[in-house]
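Example S7 (structure tokens).
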């Protein structure tokens, strides 16, 4: 089947390195199964290789609390879910997990939780500082919306990166799915993080009810406007204890197309092969590595807590221990013909190539 004119035109612009319009992005997202999708994925993989190399960066996640003050319609951690067993991992167990990550050779630790206001900014900063003393880690924090003062405390304690996904660029859909919050407030915090010198991560879900191709194009353009260092793009997966329980999951092929177009628009941004794509399909992460992804984020939380961090059901790796998760990820990277990075995986952007006071030049 011959390629459509609109798709061919948009792909040619991308191949030439020209700036893509919203209409171009939509045309690429509509890539038909078969030859169109294959050419889109091949170009995304080529752009990834040219800009980010063949190494895959491992970022070990420690999910230290599943308490959350928010009531998002799509998340199993929502405060109205009374059927979830809540936990907070004791600090010594968090540090033990980080030490094990150092032994496994990880260059990045991701401290992730629900929006748990039990922790003060000072407590989060101290957790960051203690982990930084364990090894030559980059530390990414992912604890949601906090005050400017809290972000500053964590940054001063040594936090290198912050992940705050915008979820959807549609302000009305955002407010509908995240009661009591606004997209404007979230974008304001992303601006604060940028001003504080963090390497900033954001991202969106694919397949949310009410989402359109135009919305997905806006997501990609927003990530470009934010100039993010990482963009987490994964499918919506319904949770049976949320208001969206009866909605269909996001489509894997559309998620891969969004990832591929994001790589074309954001050539120097780290893009993970998310756990969610691995949950939708046994080879989902391998597929994502072929569509522009260059990061995987294995779960290094102690095994006894994993099932309880159920943002969506049957999360890939939730029934494994940290060593099993690690070895499976390393194997799939090698099967994909890629190498595991031994560095921190900082942004290749010029402004992040040198951090004063560091003892290593690894990037």
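Recovered sequence:
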């Amino acid at each position: 089947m011959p390629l459509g004119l609109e798709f061919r035109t948009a792909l040619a612009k991308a191949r030439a390195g020209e700036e893509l319009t919203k209409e171009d992005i939509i045309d690429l997202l509509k890539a038909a199964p078969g030859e169109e999708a294959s050419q889109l994925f091949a170009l995304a993989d080529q752009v990834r290789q040219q800009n980010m190399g063949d190494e895959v960066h491992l970022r070990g996640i420690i999910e230290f609390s599943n308490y959350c003050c928010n009531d998002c319609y799509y998340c199993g951690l929502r405060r109205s879910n009374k059927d979830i067993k809540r936990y907070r991992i004791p600090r010594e167990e968090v540090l033990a997990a980080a030490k094990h990550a150092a032994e496994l050779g990880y260059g990045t630790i991701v401290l992730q939780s629900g929006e748990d206001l039990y922790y003060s900014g000072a407590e989060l900063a101290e957790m960051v500082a203690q982990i930084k003393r364990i090894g030559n880690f980059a530390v990414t924090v992912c604890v949601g919306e906090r005050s400017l003062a809290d972000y500053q405390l964590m940054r001063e304690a040594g936090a290198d990166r912050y992940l705050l996904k915008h979820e959807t660029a549609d302000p009305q859909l955002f407010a509908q799915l995240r009661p009591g919050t606004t997209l404007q407030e979230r974008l304001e915090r992303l601006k604060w993080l940028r001003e504080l010198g963090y390497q900033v991560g954001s991202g969106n879900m694919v397949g949310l009810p009410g989402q359109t191709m135009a919305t997905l194009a806006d997501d990609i353009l927003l990530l470009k406007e934010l100039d993010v260092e990482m963009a987490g793009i994964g499918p919506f997966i319904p949770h049976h204890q949320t208001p969206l329980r009866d909605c269909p999951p996001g489509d894997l092929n559309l998620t891969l197309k969004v990832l591929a177009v994001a790589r074309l628009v954001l050539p120097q941004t780290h893009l993970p092969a998310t756990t969610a794509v691995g949950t939708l399909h046994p080879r989902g992460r391998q597929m994502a590595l072929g569509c522009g992804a260059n990061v995987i984020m294995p779960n290094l939380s102690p095994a006894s807590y994993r099932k309880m961090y159920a943002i969506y059901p049957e999360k890939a790796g939730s029934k494994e221990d940290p060593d099993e998760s690690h070895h499976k990820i390393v194997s799939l990277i090698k099967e994909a013909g890629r190498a595991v990075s031994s560095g921190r995986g900082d942004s290749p952007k010029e402004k992040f190539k040198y951090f004063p006071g560091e003892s290593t030049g690894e990037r």
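Notes on this example. Confidence is low (pLDDT under 50) at residues 354-363.
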